[in-house]
Design goal:
Blueprint lengths: L1 H35 L7 H26 L8 H47 L19 H21 L1
Helix pairs in contact: 1-2, 2-3
Keywords: Membrane, Signal, Transmembrane, Transmembrane helix
Protein name: MARVEL domain-containing protein
Length: 165
């Protein structure tokens, strides 16, 4: 059973270190958000990070301290730790939801930039209807000269490839 006790202590110490990082990063982000936002808006993930970091930092050292100073304490009972860890996992899951929401926002932002760039490129190549076409049907080379040039280049490349084979 010494292995389980050592593993528990190592996991809880690592958890405390992670909670310190989460608390510090969330507090820093909150500070930056308050400086940047005109109405001092705090995002949900910032508050959630501060709350979970603070609760973890407040409860885990207490559990470890009680366990080291007092044998058979209720905080060391398996049922208590499983219940506490399940609640902590729920908090972490909400953090994961916030993180994936933010990741989705980043993906959409990259797509927006990509769509803007190819639309501007299509407009600069003479496709004046690019802004009203669907993305599926969009052709960057939609002007007659550019389209014919693009088609001729494709035909030349295909015939060149056929001759090599």
């Amino acid at each position: 059973m010494a292995f389980a006790s050592t593993f528990r202590l190592g996991a809880l110490v690592a958890l405390i270190l992670c909670a310190l990082v989460v608390l510090g990063l969330s507090a820093h982000l909150t500070s930056k958000s308050e400086q940047a936002a005109p109405f001092h808006r705090i995002f949900a993930f910032e508050g959630l990070g501060i709350a979970t970091g603070a609760i973890t930092i407040a409860t885990v050292p207490l559990m470890v301290g009680v366990d080291l100073t007092r044998k058979g304490a209720f905080t060391s009972m398996v049922v208590v730790e499983l219940t506490w860890l399940d609640e902590t996992a729920a908090c972490r899951e909400t953090q994961a939801v916030a993180a994936f929401g933010f990741l989705g926002w980043i993906i959409l932002m990259f797509y927006w930039v990509f769509l803007l760039i190819i639309s501007i490129t299509a407009a600069s190549h003479g496709n004046s209807r690019v802004w009203f076409s669907s993305v599926y049907d969009m052709n960057v080379y939609d002007s007659k000269e550019a389209l014919m040039s693009h088609t001729n280049n494709m035909g030349t490349m295909q015939s060149h490839h056929t001759q090599q084979v």
